[in-house]
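TASK: fixed-backbone design
INPUT:
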């Protein structure tokens, strides 16, 4: 934990530039999360052909996304992507590993995938554990930034486990190379190619604290861990019908007031979870809660000719929208409509001011700011960071074109949509994730989120009885 709070520079070794490579320097946005290695685990309810998976992804990287096939290097005190001029078996676009299991997944007491829940109300269920993680990372898969800095290590590592009734696809990548929306862009293009259509052609809210304030922040941060030392990640299942019902109540309330304002399901989801998380706080608790909503910059008019990004981009392009802080007591006392509007108004204000968004990006790209440690709240306050992968649209990925026919006369492929997304991360540094959550995926019926809280915090949430625990 202390290493994360005090680290400013990576200790990675310098690598010489290999022949046959073109280089692209990493941007300041790329290096923000440089120590984090992420794995997106796609669960497809069909038996897929791993050879077709590998062939199509390799071809896609070669012809459309060569940067996704880069190697990462730290040279001349700077990170860079080294992109092979040509790919071959010695220098592959991505590393593929495959396990072929002839039996069905559901046998032998394997972890139950929580896709059969039918409750009409939100509920909490435990995150699938380390035994499940092993399905998505091979034993040779890189787990730290240093692993990816070794010679000829691709940015992408794909581990496929094929059962008779299910295929598990783990895609591992360093955060310095991709963000979630960028990964979603690559995966969507991959499934289009699989299915035959081919690829389609200081920032605000953060604080640069002085030494005294830094020390105060760190002491308070550590004290929270001493009081509640165990971090627990749980899944939260939110039926869309519940979100729509609550949103309609708010819209009817606004209409009755003669207001033209609105809230979206994403605003409602954030506000609802904050009420669940902080609703137990005392009416006199005025601790400021700083909320950061992670947002993709791709649609912002800050790129060429003051327009949005005009082409698919896989590398990091996210910053956070700072929501004006509220006292902790507000989340137990204010109605859901008021909190959802608070979030919506902040997002509208952010999107209406592209000059300030551009200034945030410029700050990160200026000098050594990319390596500067900034803080999500000042001393005496608390923070919550909400990431959403909804724009990555993992739940719409369709691998039907890679389905293995179960009968020789079967011509029409079985539908093979992603039914659930699992994820994990690793780093050689201890990075605390308390005070963070992620909207991982959605389908026609539900939204799945993952939330990290202290074990005692979860107990308080459970005791209040406002959400079911499975």
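OUTPUT:
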């Amino acid at each position: 934990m202390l290493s994360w709070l005090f680290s400013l520079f990576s200790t990675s070794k310098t690598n010489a530039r290999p022949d046959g490579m073109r280089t692209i320097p990493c941007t300041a946005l790329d290096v923000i999360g440089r120590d984090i290695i992420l794995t997106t685990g796609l669960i497809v309810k069909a038996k897929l052909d791993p050879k077709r998976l590998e062939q199509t992804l390799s071809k896609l990287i070669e012809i459309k996304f060569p940067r996704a096939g880069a190697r990462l290097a730290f040279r001349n005190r700077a990170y860079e992507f080294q992109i092979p001029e040509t790919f071959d078996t010695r220098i592959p676009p991505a590393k593929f590993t495959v396990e072929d299991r002839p039996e069905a997944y559901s046998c032998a007491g394997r972890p139950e995938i929580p896709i059969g829940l039918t409750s009409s109300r939100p509920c909490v269920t435990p995150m699938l554990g380390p035994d499940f993680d092993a399905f998505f990372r091979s034993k040779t898969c890189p787990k730290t930034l240093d692993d990816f800095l070794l010679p000829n290590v691709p940015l992408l590592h794909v581990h496929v486990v094929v059962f008779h009734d299910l295929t598990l696809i783990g895609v591992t990548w360093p955060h310095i190379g991709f963000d979630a929306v960028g990964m979603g862009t690559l995966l969507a293009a991959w499934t289009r190619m699989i299915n035959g259509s081919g690829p389609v052609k200081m920032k605000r809210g953060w604080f640069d604290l002085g030494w005294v304030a830094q020390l105060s922040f760190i002491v308070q941060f550590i004290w929270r861990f001493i009081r509640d030392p165990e971090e627990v990640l749980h899944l939260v299942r939110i039926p869309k019908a519940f979100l729509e019902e609550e949103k309609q109540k708010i819209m009817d309330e606004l209409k009755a007031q003669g207001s033209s304002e609105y809230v979206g399901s994403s605003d409602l989801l954030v506000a609802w979870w904050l009420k669940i998380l902080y609703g137990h706080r005392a009416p006199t608790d005025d601790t400021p809660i700083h909320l950061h909503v992670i947002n993709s910059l791709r649609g912002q008019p800050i790129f060429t000719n003051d327009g949005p990004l005009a082409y698919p981009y896989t590398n990091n392009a996210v910053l956070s929208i700072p929501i004006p802080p509220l006292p902790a007591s507000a989340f137990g006392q204010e109605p859901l409509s008021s909190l959802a509007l608070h979030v919506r108004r902040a997002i509208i204000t952010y999107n209406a001011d592209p000059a300030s968004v551009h200034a945030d990006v410029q700050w990160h790209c200026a000098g050594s700011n990319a390596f500067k440690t900034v803080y999500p709240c000042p001393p005496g306050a608390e923070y919550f960071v909400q990431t959403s992968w909804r724009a990555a649209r993992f739940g719409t990925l369709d691998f039907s074109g890679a389905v293995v026919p179960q009968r020789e006369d079967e011509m029409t492929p079985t539908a093979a949509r992603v039914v659930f997304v699992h994820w994990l991360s690793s780093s050689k540094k201890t990075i605390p994730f308390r005070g963070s959550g992620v909207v991982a995926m959605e389908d026609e019926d539900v939204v799945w989120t993952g939330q990290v809280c202290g074990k005692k915090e979860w107990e308080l949430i459970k005791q209040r009885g406002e959400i079911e625990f499975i």
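COMMENT: Residues 282 and 329 are 6 Å apart (CA to CA).
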